[in-house]
Structures are given as structure tokens and as C-alpha cells.
Design brief:
Mean pLDDT: 87
Strand content: 25-35%
Number of helices: 2
Radius of gyration: 22 Å
Distance between the termini: 77 Å
Number of strands: 8
Shape: globular
CATH topology: Immunoglobulin-like
């Protein structure tokens, strides 16, 4: 009888903890960010997409990147990727068309970029990378779309 009672209590605790975990997961709001990049000039290299969730380190510090995606460019001149199951909040994107495989921006004369790049909200660059506050957007629904035009 004692073993039966102990088993019943153990099962009840297991069920209760499972229900609590399920309720916590449901209460955490998650959504997706779909990123469409257009005007890719060729199929060389890779498109490196960096998603940041805070201003610190944006857009240069690789340690500050929240999530990344690497996409092969195709002949259509555009690519799409989806960052799934993200907690609601503010995010910013930094994108590089790494044509030469260096895993970083290649610069030419007058320190001008030789490879394509773009940022969320299609923020234009003026002599230095934009600030997080200009490129940030808010995920607070099931899905957010960012369509970005590659600049060269």
C-alpha cells in the first residue's frame, strides 16, 4: 500500500511539472523574421546574414550576433531565409555579400566597400555603419518581413 501511495504521488508531481513547463512555453511569445534580399549582382561567394538583438556590438562584433544564416546566391538575384521561433523584442540585421570568401567586408580605394551589403529597414550608409537604433525593428507578432536591397 505504501509503495502504491508513493507511486501515485510521484506520478502526480511528474504530471504537474509537465503542465507547468507547457504553460511556461505557451506564455513565452515567439515569432519568425523572414528576410528577403534583392539586387544581388552575381552568384559568387555567400550571403552572410547576421541578426542582432541588442545595440552593443552592432554591426561589427561577431560575438554580439544573436543568430546567423549563410545563403548561397542564385541567378534570380534574390534570396530568402527565415529566423524561426524568436522571442518578441527589438532586432537589427546586417548583411554582407561575401563574394571573395573572406568572411568579412573587403575594401577598395578610399576605404569604400568592394562587396555588397545592406541593413534592416534599408538604412543608407554614410561613411560609417549605421547605429542599431536606426536599423532596429520590433518583432511582436507571428511574423515580421524585412525586404532588403543589396548595395554595392
Amino acid at each position: 500500500m505504501r509503495n502504491t501511495s508513493l507511486l501515485a504521488i510521484t506520478l502526480a508531481l511528474l504530471v504537474a511539472s509537465t503542465i507547468a513547463v507547457d504553460m511556461e512555453a505557451q506564455s513565452m511569445s515567439l515569432g519568425d523574421i523572414t528576410v528577403n534580399i534583392t539586387d544581388i549582382r552575381n552568384t559568387d561567394g555567400e550571403i552572410l546574414i547576421s541578426l542582432y538583438d541588442k545595440a552593443e556590438g552592432f554591426p561589427r562584433d561577431r560575438q554580439a550576433i544573436f543568430r546567423t544564416a549563410v545563403v548561397e546566391p542564385d541567378v534570380s538575384g534574390q534570396v530568402t531565409t527565415v529566423f524561426e521561433d524568436l522571442p518578441y523584442g527589438d532586432y537589427a540585421l546586417a548583411v554582407l555579400h561575401d563574394e571573395d570568401g573572406s568572411q568579412g567586408m573587403t575594401f577598395g580605394s578610399f576605404h569604400l566597400p568592394k562587396e555588397g551589403y545592406c541593413f534592416s529597414n534599408n538604412v543608407k550608409v554614410r561613411f560609417k555603419p549605421p547605429k542599431f537604433k536606426k536599423t532596429k525593428f520590433t518583432l511582436n507578432g507571428d511574423d515580421v518581413n524585412q525586404t532588403l536591397r543589396m548595395r554595392y
